[in-house]
Design goal:
0% strand; globular; mainly alpha; 14 helices
């Protein structure tokens, strides 16, 4: 499971690295949901399953339970206290990691946070991811749609919705969503500059193609991105991974080296690690037929 988690984080980093659409300030909650959601590998846990909980002491369990009870007591008196709701969600996310809670237990405080803070899309993304992990896929889809209706370039919501569609065996719908986003990007960016990051969306499209074994289409996407911006390491890295999956180790290593040289310092170790993995371990697309994948976005390697 740890290997699968590493795969997800690498692919999230490919999509959203160096894009001003990174994670959220309350990273521990987001990290919990990311680490407990199905991973982007051909064999994925069914909805509602979580990794084997780590061993923790009874004292640690009691501390988390006391923390949860403390927030619940506050909410009994102040049901609209956003800080307490956020604290409750975070405490339960930690309890989820060790098997004391399930995704369902996160839904109520997140729904209340969304209700009280409709302008905070990060709460909606967290809610959508939690609903998806809990097996409430249609509710998750509706939540993703509500975000994208007003913010079509939100990479966290876009990637989550794409992966949900692929998990539902609807890759054509995922491709259509991304192509529509790209088609509308010029007008959206004219109204609100940089509201849709064209390159990030195309990288996600390339991953969908990769997950469907449409390698020629994926390579075409990556090659165009490389041609448009030779200094962007992300499509170089993505293409290197794809070539390695195809058994073209020599060509892949050249691209891994190029990506490492182009990448900011904080990403170089991840590129080196991906280059050293065997093809079976190298992360495939997070949008394989059975995957709901980020990534993006994700509590990426550079969360805020």
């Amino acid at each position: 499971m740890q290997k699968k988690s590493n795969r997800w984080f690498i692919w999230v980093f490919v999509v959203v690295a160096v894009v001003a659409l990174f994670g959220f300030s309350f990273g521990s909650i987001f990290d919990s949901i990311l680490s407990s959601r199905p991973s982007p590998s051909p064999t994925v846990p069914t909805a509602g399953t979580t990794p084997t909980p780590p061993a923790v002491s009874d004292t640690e369990k009691k501390d988390l339970q006391d923390l949860e009870n403390g927030y619940l007591q506050i909410l009994e008196k102040e049901p609209n206290n956003s800080d307490a709701l956020l604290g409750l969600a975070e405490a339960r996310s930690q309890m989820l990691k060790i098997g004391l809670k399930k995704e369902q237990d996160l839904i109520d405080p997140l729904e209340k946070l969304v209700e009280l803070n409709p302008e905070q899309t990060q709460y909606k993304v967290l809610l959508a991811q939690t609903l998806q992990k809990a097996g409430k896929r249609e509710s998750a889809a509706q939540t993703y749609r509500s975000i994208l209706a007003t913010q079509p370039g939100d990479m966290n919501a876009l990637q989550g919705f794409v992966n949900l569609l692929v998990e539902q065996q609807r890759p054509a719908a995922a491709v259509e969503l991304l192509e529509t986003t790209l088609k509308n990007a010029p007008q959206a960016n004219q109204v609100k500059p940089n509201s849709i990051n064209d390159s990030a969306v195309k990288l996600l499209l390339g991953q969908v193609y990769t997950g469907q074994k449409q390698f020629d289409q994926a390579l075409a996407v990556y090659d165009k991105l490389i041609a448009n911006d030779p200094k962007d390491f992300r499509p170089v890295f993505a293409k290197a991974i794809l070539l390695k999956e195809q058994g073209k180790a020599k060509e892949a290593n050249i691209l891994f080296n190029s990506a490492e040289k182009l990448a900011p310092g904080q990403y170089k170790d991840q590129i080196k690690a991906a280059a050293k993995e065997t093809p079976a371990e190298t992360p495939p697309s997070p949008t394989s037929p059975s995957s709901p994948s980020p990534q993006p976005s994700p509590s990426s390697p550079t969360p805020e």
